[in-house]
Every structure is written in C-alpha cells, then in structure tokens.
C-alpha cells in the first residue's frame, strides 16, 4: 500500500520491512527503499515449514539472493544423488529434524513419504548455494523453463526485463509451439503495448540468446491466485486465447 501511494513516506518508527510468501522482485525492493528510506529483508519458508532462509540487519542477503540458512537450521541443495557442489543447481531441502518442519500431511502418508528423500524434506523449489552459504531461488521445479534443451529460471528473465520503461509487471514461461519445441514467451502489463522489436532488442542486450523471449504480449493483467501469487502455468492459457483464430 505504501508503494501504491506513489509518494515517499517518512515513518520514524519503521526500521525495515519484511517480505515473505513469494520471491521478492528486485523492482519492489528498490521501490521500497526509495519510498521509505529503509531496507526490506526477505524470509523464505512454506506452509510445511516456518521460514528458514533469510536476510537480517546484522547479515543482509547479497543482492538477488534469499539470504542464508538461519542459525540452527540444516539446509542443503540436493540433486538426484545427494548434495550438489557449491554453485550447482538443485532442489532446496530441509533436514527432517528441523524444529519448524511439519510432522506430515494429515491423513496423507503417501504424500508425506513422497516429499522425503532419506533425512531430507524436498521443498520442490530449485536453488543454488554459493560459497558464502547464500541461496539464490530459481523457481518451482515445475516452473523451470526448457529452452532448446537448456534449463532457464523464469525469475532470472523477469528480473532482467522488469525495469524496461513502460512495463509495470512481467511474467515469462515456456510455451509448446510444436510437439518437439518449446519457446520462452513474455507477458507484461503497462499503460500501452510496446514495440515488440524494441523489447526483443533490449532483451538480447541483457540475456543470453537462449534465455531471450521469442514473443512479447501486452495483457490487461497477469494471472494471480487469491493470495496474490503469480499463476505462471495459466500463462499458457493466455497464449492460446491470443492465438485462437475464432
């Protein structure tokens, strides 16, 4: 609400903001700082586990990362064969002994078992840990995009394009254009449609070729659930509606 007011606010009692629920966009982080003059820290958790990765005043998260595992929390990045090397993509996992982790899904033992791998609870989110233990969030496992055989994080593409003048919000996903081909497409809101050629040019300056969207579509609104979270998989339905000859 502070940001939507469109003016800077001096709130003497405000020391910082806290963001949780979904990945904090860089644009909101920057606008918060401009509007309030205070930092905003991110906390990562889920319904199954209280927040366990975060930044804090005494140890801010490096730009673009969620932060570091909180003291006393055992967090790992796992691949199919166990922990992956530093700097390698994998699934964010929480040790089953974590005090904030659920006991299980009520009346759903099979679902609970499916989320465990040995001693680890698999969050279903992809991430990378660096040598300072900071963790970068990439996407939900099923939101990761396949572009010409390369795995691409939609957040990386969105963050690269979100500050283009005329774009209010942007979301990307990969769309099946043939049975054997998927292409990255971008959907954005803003006061008016922008030149697709100019958007493609700007994207090519900021992203590797295989990460660059192959189509840009101006829409009235992006799909969100009642909690305000982006419904990325609904973007395919928007694409189909835009290309429906009827």
UniProtKB/TrEMBL annotation:
Residues 8-106 form the AMP-dependent synthetase/ligase domain. GO terms for molecular function: acid-thiol ligase activity. It holds the Pfam family AMP-binding_C. It comes from Roseovarius nubinhibens. This is Benzoate--CoA ligase. GO terms for biological process: secondary metabolite biosynthetic process. Transmembrane segments: none annotated. CDD domains: AFD_class_I. The keyword Plastid does not apply. Keywords: Ligase. SUPFAM superfamilies: Acetyl-CoA synthetase-like (SSF56801). InterPro entries: AMP-bd_C (IPR025110), AMP-bd_C_sf (IPR045851), AMP-dep_synth/lig_dom (IPR000873), ANL_N_sf (IPR042099). Residues 156-229 form the AMP-binding enzyme C-terminal domain.
């Amino acid at each position: 609400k502070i940001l939507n007011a469109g003016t800077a606010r001096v709130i003497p009692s405000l020391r910082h903001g806290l963001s949780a629920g979904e990945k904090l966009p860089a644009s909101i982080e920057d606008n918060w700082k401009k509007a309030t003059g205070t930092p905003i820290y991110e906390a990562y958790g889920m319904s199954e586990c209280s927040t366990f990765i975060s930044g804090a005043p005494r140890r801010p998260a490096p730009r673009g990362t969620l932060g570091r595992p909180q003291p006393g929390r055992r967090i790992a990045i796992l691949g199919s064969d166990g922990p992956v090397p530093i700097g390698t993509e994998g699934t964010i996992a929480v040790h089953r002994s974590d005090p904030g982790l659920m006991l299980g899904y009520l009346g759903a033992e099979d679902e609970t078992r499916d989320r465990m791998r040995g001693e680890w609870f698999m969050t279903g989110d992809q991430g990378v840990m660096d040598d300072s233990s900071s963790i970068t969030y990439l996407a939900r496992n099923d939101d990761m995009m396949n572009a010409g055989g390369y795995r691409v994080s939609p957040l990386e593409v969105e963050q690269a394009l979100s500050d283009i003048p005329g774009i209010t919000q942007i979301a990307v996903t990969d769309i099946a254009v043939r049975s054997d081909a998927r292409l990255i497409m971008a959907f954005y809101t803003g006061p008016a449609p922008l030149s697709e050629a100019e958007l493609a040019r700007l994207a090519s300056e900021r992203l590797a070729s295989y990460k660059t969207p192959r189509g840009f579509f101006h829409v009235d609104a992006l799909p969100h659930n009642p909690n305000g979270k982006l419904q990325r998989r609904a973007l395919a339905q928007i694409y189909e509606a835009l290309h429906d000859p009827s």
